[in-house]
Amino acid sequence: MSSRTVKELPPLHDLISNIGKNDYCALFFIGATGDIIDILDGREQRFRIRETAQKDFRFWNSLVCSLFMERSREEDITLLFDNLDRCSCPMGIPGVSKAHLSGRVWKARDIWSTVETQRLSQTLVQHFFRLLAAVLDQAHIRSVAKGISKIWPASPNDLIPFGPENLLYGLILWKHLIPDMVIFKVAAQYIRFCGALVLPAFVNSEFASDIIKFGRGFCDGAWKLALRSKTKTQATTFSHCFYLQAEPLVAYFSAVLDDHTYQTQLDMLHDCEVKSIQLFSILAYLASDDRIAVLPRSHAFLVKVQEIGARLYQLVERFFIRLPEILIFPGIFAIAGPHLARKDAARLDMELSRGLTVTPDKDKNGTVSQVIVFMGRTRPSKYADLNERDLGRCSKITEDAITHMRTAKYMLRCSATSCPNSIQSTGREFQRCGKCAIALYCGKECQTSSWRDKDFPHKKICPTLRKLVEQGGEDVIFQCPRPEDPKHFPLELSEIVIANWKREGVSKDTLEHIALWGEHLMASEDVEKKLKNEPGFGDYHMFIGELAGSIADRQAKPLIQRHHNTFYQLAPFTQEL
To answer: What is the reported pTM?
Structure first.
């Protein structure tokens, strides 16, 4: 027997911990980590991390450390890429040659690369981010937030070993070096899993301006490619690539708008409010273009883009005193437009019911005139039910009640007014109200203060919530077809709840009160109206005109809060009323 000892391949987590400092190249790491994946759909980049790999905490911790360790100079990245592109792998060690073969297979499938000429080292970084996105897709937010997850990550601390600031620095640094938008999918997952632990870093780093810049660049590039002639196969491949790169944008803005107070949402969009709305209008035009929308998933994606575009507008319109007229994609207008019309109708009802007193003015001839307010309609009776004539506004109130009840059930923040605590920030399990099983509290003190809250005391809200759940069909209102997206509630389920409430004679006032309570939860504190907004993209109108073409039903529609004008009659001051 030979006395020569054959070296063994070190554990993969050890190799990743010293990546760029050992002899192993990018192709080796791509192949070696490919064994932990089960491909579900290679064309759509859908895959799962194997169950045994999900429990390999040392592997995932080393991968996160390799991505987000502090790198102070560009030369550090250049040196890392140079070392990874140069193969000095010890082929004599069992498993090394096999990993290279596997890496070549992955490369041939082009499952990771988005640019043919990119370096192998760049492909490896994309590969690592896609692995990270996949394993977080399979993790459970509540278990991680409480620090009791049996699969990786065990707690939010596993995700930020070097702190939130280094996380944001790493995300922005890598996005400048690789073309893949998957980094924004990972950013969205960090917001969901870490919550208040990372939100200040996202705000302070002005991450919104980066995602707007890269998002607009992606849209410009996608449009140029869409205009090129293609075979049917090429068109299908291009469409797959479009959705692969566009979905992280949707994931990020969805994470920004979900489960945060209005103030936090505005902070996350700071100085990019109008551009965010315009970006999703552009994205909707692209996603609905016949040259791109050729896949079965196309319609569902467009619906999601339109929903987020409308939510962005509604948020910005709520908290800015003046907004410019924004031309938007017709599908977004169809959602946001009626919402604004209902708000104006509600304002008019309130104004007319109060009977405004207007100070008389003198006309140009010095004649004093008196203003007579025509009382065109009054506010609906507090006893009005779901059969009232104003079905448009009533429908909005009903939808808001459902949305806010579901949000309160699935959010990870304390339900007490102005309490900043979340399950992520405390690492503890919170307690739900034992009666309604909806309100969530970080401790007894918050539960007591919420019970006696001056605006929405839980002692009054609680029985209302319990009754609405019962009248709506018990647990129907809390069904969750997409566990990763609790806010998603299919129309067919919503219609069941609304029909049940209508049959039970639920009053409009009850639903309006719950909708206002939900707004109270989201507000958490008074949010001051803002006066100045950023101007948006300078070439926006020209670009969407090109995207719309000459097709009538694709023409952009102007969306702006059209505050109603109260109609007055001017009459001589001496006229009797």
So the answer is: 0.82
